[in-house]
Recover the amino acids of this structure.
């Protein structure tokens, strides 16, 4: 989940409790980080 905060955008877990990325200046950067998180979450060993 991407949430707008004072410093830009923040990537949070689905329940909003874990911060998965520091504040990003643009929404595009936050979306890129969210794609990275989803990739590793669903990756098979």
């Amino acid at each position: 989940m991407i949430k707008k905060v004072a410093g830009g955008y923040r990537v949070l877990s689905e329940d909003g409790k874990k911060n998965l990325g520091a504040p990003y200046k643009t929404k595009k950067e936050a979306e890129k980080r969210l794609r990275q998180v989803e990739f590793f979450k669903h990756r098979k060993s």
In short: The chain has a mean pLDDT of 93. Strands lie at 2-5, 8-12, 19-24. Residues 2-42 form one domain.
